[in-house]
Structures are given as structure tokens and as C-alpha cells.
Design a protein that fits this description.
The protein is of the alpha+beta class and 448 residues long. The protein is built from 18 helices and twelve strands.
Length: 448
């Protein structure tokens, strides 16, 4: 007979709600240590935290048809619509089919020059001894890059899109809205701002699409929007303007937010680990010298790729994944009913000492000698997993390596005295107080 499943720490009547609201990551990490499947109580709702990679794979891959996105992700539809992030079933499969060709290797290779061009231009404005919020700087940089990759060189006021998305992220960052869904209908200041930006965001993105349609044959042909407009399903059908709007918004958010966070956390870890930084600089000098990186250099920048991989292990932007069952199911020998909510935390799974020795240490060299094939498949899942793995993961990894090497080629970055990075688990894993760093110029070495 199976032993009863463990339950998380909770308080009378309100359950785990105040504990989670005070420190979401800390509470969930403590809970993850209790077992592979742990019950959580949130006021009137229960959930199950699943931390065993084999069980995660069973839900996300082997029995994926028995689940859909959880209530939190479904609530994003009011902003993001039915894009790849939030759509389900046959509609999602069709959209994935239509969009996939835009992310083939030969397509994303063409964006490498855009990435290094914008990064080189951005860091030319940095100077020795300057202090800046690196996270903010990376957000601006990746917004410029994703704008050109999505829309070409002229796309209107994308800074307003970024500002609107910041308000959306702020609204979904507050754990109280997760614990008490009724707060969404209370006239709080954040709700007012949220309700104002959603229609504005919709108008801007629809404007981009309308401008492109009006441009006709004069419109750019090689950006992502052109590929989405030209995409055809097997029956010859294309995306409606609503579908285009939803996918453009998702691609902008993913290409802007998650890459900026990956790069920011990576630069923070390099500042905390100067030995890793020196080894990265040695590789950059050997492979690149003083010239900018190109797409063809990426296979040679092996250590830079491992630095990014290790950063994504410790600080996955998509720090949590939720699913809700649409029928009864079995998991780990236990029976669960329809409507059960499951929660997977890449943040915790990727710090589990069962799979990673010295799990809190930043050690890019752990990924040498085929280490990724020696751990369970879902012990490392910064881009999700199964059929819904992030469609832009290759794009994001290429961008992270190119931007990282372009910056590290020219600068050392160190956190300002007294600064401590505090993660902010919103939709993505942000910095609670920004990332204040001081810049020191270094001269790129000629190639060996």
C-alpha cells in the first residue's frame, strides 16, 4: 500500500497563502524537499507540486492530452490572446505548424548580424567606471533586436509596447492575485493601469500588422512578420489578423523579456565568479580576437554556450509551469481526479542535488563530456518540455551567446558595493531591485 503523500506547511483556515505571498520561491523550495509529489493548500484551492523529472515527463509528454494550461496561464489570454503560449488542442497544433518554419536554423542564422549590430551600438555608449542598471539596459537592447527581427527597421513606437508589457508583468508578478483571484476585480491602482494598457497594446500591434499589409510589395520580406503573413497550412489557409496579433505579441514578449533576463543573470553570475569570467575571456580572445562574433563562430564558442546553459539552470526565466487535468489520471501510483492542478518548478528541479552536484554553485564546466545526456531528460528544462517546448529556444540561445560575447569582449562588469540580487518570481524570473553594476573597459585581444 502506498504511503500518504506529504503536505506542505500551512496555517489554519488560510493554508499556505500568506507563506507563499511572503516568499514564493523560498516557500516552494522548502516544499519541494518534502517529496516528489507534495500537496499544497491555498485558501480554497489545492495544488500538487511535482519535482521528479520522470513524473514531469509523464505529464508533459506521455500523457499530455490529459492536461491543459492552468488557470493562471489561461488568465493571460485576456492580454496575449490565443498565441502559442496560451492556446490549446488542434488550434495550437495548427499555429505551431504555421510558425515552425520561421525558426528553422537557416532562418534564425540571418538574425545573427542584427543581434551583434545592435549590441555593438549599445555598448559604444558605455564608458569606464559607469554605473548602470544592467537589467534595464538589456531590456532596451533586446527590445531593439526583437523589433528589427519581427518588423524590420520601421515598426512604429515599440517602446510603448515594452512599457505596456511592463505593466502586464507587474500585474501578474504579485502573488496575492494568484492566492486571491477575486482581487482581479477590485479597483486597485495596478488593476486600473492594467485595464488601460491592454486595449492600447492591442491597438499598437494591430497597427503594425495593418501597416505591413498596406505596404504590399514594398514591405520587408525577411523579418518574422513577413514569414507569419506568408505562412500557409496544408489546406492553403493563413492566419487571421487576430491570430497574427496574438503570435506577434507572444514573440515580442519572449524575444524581449526572457533573453534580457538570461543575459542579465549571466552577467551577474560572471561578476560573482571571476574564474569563470577569465576562462570566458580567454575563449573570446582565442576565437574572436577583436572582431565581432558571427553565426559561424557559435560552434567554436563552446564555453560561452556552457556559461549560458549554467545560467539558465540556476535562473530559468520560465521558473514555473502549471497544468490542470481534464480527466482522471494516475501519477506515481496515485490516483488524481479531473480538475487537479499540478505545478512543476524548473527553478527547484534544476537545483536538485540528486541531479546536480554542488547545485547552487555556478559551474559551466559541469556541462562538459555530454553531461546533459547523463541526467534525466526533465532535470533541465529552462524552455519547458514535450510538444510545447519553446519554439524560439534556438533563437534565444544564439542571441544569448552572441550578446554575451560581444559585451564580455569589451567590458568587465561588477555589482556595486552592497548590492544583492533578489529574484522576483513574476511570469518570468526578474530582479526585484534591478541589477546595478559598474563597468570597466577592457581591450579586446587580437586572435591567437
Amino acid at each position: 500500500m502506498l504511503a500518504p503523500l506529504p503536505e506542505s506547511r500551512r496555517l489554519p483556515l488560510v493554508g499556505a497563502t500568506p507563506l507563499y505571498a511572503r516568499d514564493p520561491l523560498g516557500y516552494l523550495e522548502d516544499t519541494a524537499r518534502l517529496g516528489d509529489i507534495v500537496k499544497l493548500h491555498f485558501f480554497r484551492r489545492t495544488a500538487w507540486l511535482v519535482t521528479d523529472p520522470a513524473l514531469v515527463e509523464q505529464v508533459l509528454v506521455k500523457n499530455a492530452s490529459s492536461f491543459h494550461k492552468d488557470v493562471f496561464n489561461r488568465s493571460l489570454k485576456q492580454v496575449l490572446g490565443d498565441g502559442l503560449l496560451s492556446s490549446e488542442g488542434e488550434f495550437w497544433k495548427r499555429q505551431r505548424r504555421l510558425i515552425q518554419p520561421a525558426f528553422h536554423r537557416e532562418k534564425i542564422a540571418g538574425y545573427a548580424e542584427t543581434m551583434t549590430k545592435h549590441t555593438t551600438r549599445a555598448v559604444q555608449g558605455w564608458h569606464d567606471g559607469q554605473s548602470l542598471d544592467v537589467h534595464h539596459a538589456m531590456m532596451e537592447l533586446t527590445a531593439e533586436i526583437v523589433t528589427e527581427c519581427l518588423f524590420g527597421t520601421s515598426a512604429g513606437d515599440v517602446s510603448e509596447v515594452a512599457a505596456c508589457l511592463d505593466t502586464v508583468m507587474e500585474r501578474f508578478a504579485n502573488p496575492l492575485f494568484f492566492a486571491f483571484p477575486f482581487l482581479s476585480h477590485v479597483p486597485l491602482p495596478i488593476n486600473t493601469r492594467f485595464q488601460e494598457v491592454v486595449p492600447r497594446l492591442d491597438r499598437i500591434v494591430r497597427g503594425f500588422i495593418e501597416q505591413r499589409r498596406l505596404a504590399g510589395d514594398k514591405a520587408p520580406k525577411n523579418d518574422l512578420l513577413a514569414m507569419l503573413l506568408d505562412a500557409r497550412d496544408d489546406d492553403g489557409s493563413s492566419m487571421s489578423d487576430q491570430q497574427l496579433r496574438d503570435e506577434v505579441l507572444i514573440l515580442f514578449l519572449a524575444g524581449h523579456e526572457t533573453t534580457a533576463l538570461t543575459l542579465s543573470w549571466t552577467l551577474y553570475e560572471l561578476a560573482m565568479n571571476p574564474g569563470v569570467e577569465r576562462r570566458l575571456h580567454d575563449e573570446i580572445s582565442r576565437v574572436l580576437g577583436d572582431r565581432p562574433p558571427t553565426f559561424d563562430d557559435i560552434p567554436k564558442l563552446e564555453y560561452a554556450a556552457r556559461v549560458v546553459t549554467e545560467s539558465l539552470r540556476l535562473h530559468p526565466p520560465a521558473w514555473s509551469i502549471g497544468r490542470e487535468s481534464i480527466q482522471d489520471f494516475e501519477l506515481g501510483g496515485h490516483h488524481f481526479e479531473k480538475g487537479t492542478w499540478l505545478w512543476f518548478l524548473p527553478y527547484s528541479i534544476q537545483r536538485d542535488p540528486r541531479w546536480f552536484s554542488d547545485p547552487l554553485a555556478f559551474r559551466p564546466e559541469r556541462w562538459e563530456d555530454g553531461f546533459a545526456k547523463k541526467i534525466p531528460k526533465f532535470a533541465y528544462m529552462p524552455f519547458g518540455g514535450g510538444p510545447r517546448i519553446c519554439i524560439g529556444n534556438s533563437f534565444a540561445l544564439m542571441e544569448a551567446v552572441l550578446l554575451l560575447t560581444t559585451i564580455a569582449q569589451r567590458f568587465w562588469l561588477r555589482t556595486v558595493p552592497g548590492y544583492k540580487a533578489v529574484p522576483d518570481p513574476a511570469i518570468t524570473l526578474r530582479f526585484k531591485h534591478g541589477l546595478r553594476m559598474t563597468i570597466t573597459k577592457r581591450d579586446p585581444a587580437p586572435a591567437a
